[in-house]
Amino acid sequence: MSAELAFNRNQDVDYGVAQEVGPGIRRIVANNPGPYTFLGTNSYVVGSGEVAVIDPGPADERHLKAVAAAIKGERLSHILVTHSHRDHCDGARGLQALAGGMIAAFGATGTPRGAGVPGLGEAFVDPSFAPDRRLADGDTIRSKGFALDVMHLPGHAPDHLCFALVGKRTVFTGDHVMGWNTTVIAPPEGNMAQFLASLERLMKRHDKVFLPGHGGRIQTPQRVVKAYIMHRKWREQTILACLDDGVRTIPRIVERLYGTLDAGLKGAAALSVLAHLEHLAARDLVAADGPSGLLGVFSSRAS
Q: Of 63, 122, 160, 225, which sees the most CB atoms within 10 A?
């Protein structure tokens, strides 16, 4: 089982410019590059004449004006938000003020939000985000210029939605599947069991293109989803191997498995390890010797 995923990071971006990335689909990239956002957040315009915007991005006035300019002369019917992480949702009300449209998203989940490392708390997620319309799995957003099926695919976030363009075998995947990096699963915001179940659901589809929230289009969706699943299973085995070798705390596991990772990303790596350990514990393969969490001490049930 390979640890390697073939990422595509060789891309150029012209911020603020609407680029056609598929029939009836335009993309405007926000100028918010970073370790979790790659080159920036992708805002997609779907349809013609009457349109939807998927993920308005951050509350960046320049970006929101670029999106509004791209749809000048058209009617914005919906502002669709894949999940309430600030790089996707914070611009929703600002875009609505500029161009109108109904804000639609999953809405409140009633579960703990955020994560316990710098940059992944409320600075990362807006727990108070409230759309005008709450969407549920199986809904369809219809307008004169498009139709989008709604899929609730939690894992990266409990409120995460993906949108499938009806009849086009094209899915807007938000942060659930990306072509530039693996998806961050950061408890309690993220849940590994839900993430894997959501990937399995995508595996059963026959899509031709994924359009993610960051990075370029994915031309081989099922291959990438399968690689994601294999990578997570491989990572699980490496964590179990650490426990068998007496490496029983998350900081030590991270140091062994992610020793060359940029220091600024090791907090996210620690949360990913925790997500795996929680998933293993739920299957009775791992036990916490005392309290669980980032400071816990873990052991393999087989050892």
A: 160
User: Taking the model in full, what pTM does it have?
Assistant: 0.93
Residues 216 and 244 in one domain: no
**Of 229, 252, 267, which residue sits at a domain end?**
229
Give 173's pLDDT tier (boundaries 50, 70, 90): very high
Query: Of the spans 176-180, 202-206, 263-267, which averages the highest pLDDT?
Result: 202-206
209, 169 in Cβ contact below 8 A?
yes
Given 169, 201, 229, the domain boundary residue is 229
- Looking up residue 293, the CATH number of its domain turns out to be 1.10.10
Q: How many domains does the chain have?
A: 2
The domain of 266 spans 234-300
Distance (Å, whole) CA 9 – CA 180:
5
pLDDT at res. 292: 84
Give yes or no: residues 144 and 289 share one domain: no
- At 26, which CATH number? 3.60.15.10
User: Mean pLDDT throughout 7-31?
Assistant: 88
Q: Are residue 64 and residue 26 in the same domain, yes or no? A: yes
Determine the average pLDDT of the residues in 112-137: 84
Mean pLDDT of the chain: 92
